[in-house]
Amino acid sequence: MSEISALPSGIVEWLKSREELSGIIFLTEFPAIKKAVPLKHTTVAVGINGMEIVDAFSENDEGILEREEFCRTAKITLRLSIHAPFSAGGSACHEAFANIIDCLTFESGLNILTSGCDDIISDRDTDAFVLRAWLKVEANLCPAATSSLPLPSFFSKDLLCGSHIRDENIHLTLEQQEFLDSPVICTAYFGTGGNSEECVLGFRPRFVFVSRAGFPISDYDFNGRMNIVSSAIGGSMGTTLGIELTNRGIRIHNSSEYEHLGYRIALNTLGTSYLVFAIK
Predict the structure, then answer these.
(1) Structural domains of the chain in order of their starting residue, each with its CATH number
(2) With CB atoms counted within 10 Å of each terminal CB, which end of the chain scores lower, N or C?
């Protein structure tokens, strides 16, 4: 418990060391102390509002949760009393709060669960605007845990370490996020009459279906005595005749070279519209 009581002073000393917060005065106060009148610099007092301590559990080799004998989990609510001079305006309170939370979240070892603030009030005793803010942190009371804060440390840094950020079992990659936003592309192209053309989709499709708009999948040419196939599919296992997958989309063909057993592939007929359905 002595480690928890030392937490406000440890945070104050750490915040004082941050160059980006050099314009702010940090202090601890219990009970509250009088501040300079009129206030000349933004001043922030750090204290503890409350805490909840429960048993800590971890999974064994069989995936069963077991109580840890020497560890506890604590949820601590910290109080930030932010005072800004009238001359700086009320926005100085919110600016200080945002900068402090950013530093503690991304550069310290604190595991911040939530944070927030109340409305700004005017304090005539110090000629200052006052913002009452708070943040709730989770801590593991384990002797072996470490933190970047300069105090007897017990804070879990799991949420700030690289292994957590790179864990693809709980985080989506950029490619996966883009897939969820638009997994299926529906587009079209017009035939040029050329033997080979590339239809650029911007990615290599996992599955693609191409078909002539307004026509059946295949038709019969009685004059040429030939089945005209104006559709194709492709995927990771291969493609039908007349289509190839590329890193940027698909390549379609349209020539007598692509004939097989009375069937002719026509995927690029001049002036004809083709529909494309592709899965990223």
Answers:
(1) 2-163 (3.30.2000.10), 183-279 (no CATH)
(2) N
